[in-house]
Design goal:
- The chain has 377 residues and is of the alpha/beta class.
- 37% of the residues lie in helices and 10% in strands.
- Helix 9 runs parallel beside helix 10.
- The protein is globular and about 55 Å long.
- It binds zinc ion (ZN).
- The site of zinc ion has 6 residues, from loops.
Length: 377
Amino acid sequence: MKKAKLIGSLEYAKYRYPKNHPLKIPRVSLLLRFLEAMELISEDEIIKSRQASMRELLLFHDKDYIETLIEAEKCQCVPNGAREKYNIGSYENPVSYAMFTGSSLATGSTIQAIEEFLKGNVVFNPAGGMHHAFRNKANGFCYINDPAIGIEYLRKRGFKKILYIDLDAHHCDGVQEAFYETHEVFVLSLHQSPQYAFPFKRGYLEEIGEGKGKGFNLNIPLPKGVNDDEFLYALENALNIVKEIIEPEVYLLQLGTDPLLEDYLSKFNLSNIGFLKAFNMVRDCFGEGIYLGGGGYHPYALARAWTLIWCEISKREPMDNLTNKAKELFHSIDFEEFDDVDRSYMFESLKDSYRGGEIRKEVRDIIEKAKALVLNV
Ligand SMILES: [Zn+2]
C-alpha cells in the first residue's frame, strides 16, 4: 500500500538566510511544527532530511561552483572574484548557512523523495523546488537546483520521458535552461509574466526549447491579478497541451506558494483552495508525482497551503479551525505584514474562501497562442 511521507527536519531553522532577506522566515520547520500543532501528522510519516552527497550535487552543478559555495559558507565571506563569477554575496544570494548546508539538505531531501516515490510511496519534500539556480551560478535566492539534480538522477536511473511542472509565481529559469535542448524532459511553467516579474529575462511564451528539445518547453506567462478560475483555466489547458506531446513516465511538481494572494513577492490572487485544486488537477491528469516545495514568503500562507497539500496526500480531512496550539505557534513567529490589510483570518481557519472571478481575454489569448506555438512544432 502507498504510504504518505513528508521529508523534513527542524534543522532547517538553523540554516536561515540573513535578517534582511525574504527567506529569513521559518518554512519547513514551521510546517512541521504546524502539522504537529494541528495533529495532522504522525512521527512515522516523517523522513528526516539528509544532506546531498558531492556526487549527487555534481549531477547538475560544476565542481568549482560547489566548492566555492562550501568555501564561502565556511569563511562566511565572499571569496575573491566569486561575486561576479558565481553571483553570490549579493542581497539576493547572500552568504549564510543556507547557501550550502541548507541547500544541500534540501537537495538530499529531493533525492530521498524520489527514492521513496520509486518504492511506491507518495512523497512531499517542502524544502525542495529551488528552481532558479544555474549550473554555475546562484540566482533568485537559489544556490543548488534540486529539481534539476532530481531530474538528472531519474535520467541516470533510465527514465527518458520526464515531466517537470512548476506552479510557483516565478518562472523556473534554472530548470528551463538545464533541459532546454532535450526531448527527454518536458518543462511546463505557469508564472507571472517576465514583463513585470522576476526573472525578467526568461519565461516568455516564445521559449519553446531548442534543437531536440524544441516543443518540449511550455511557458504560460500570466498577467497581474490572476484569480483561482484563471489559474485553473490556464493550468487545465496547459496540461491538455502537454498530454498531446508526451506521456510521462514520471513527473515532478514544484509547489511554490507565492501565487497566493497574501504573498507579497507576487501579484497573483490565488486562495489556498484554488492552489489545492490546481494540485489535484495535475494528479487527476498524470497520477501521483514527486512533490516539491518552492517559493513562498508569507509564513502563515505557506504553512496553511502546504498543510492542505499534505492532508490531501495523506488522505486526511482537516478540520477548518486552527487549534490553540497552532494559533500560539503562528503568534510566536517573527513576521510583520507589509501592508495594512486585516489577515486575522489566517489565525482562525485553515482554508480560504475560493477566489474565483472572470477569465480575462488576455488569459484566453495566451492559451490560444501557446497551442499554436507548441502543437505546431
Ligand atoms: Zn517564486
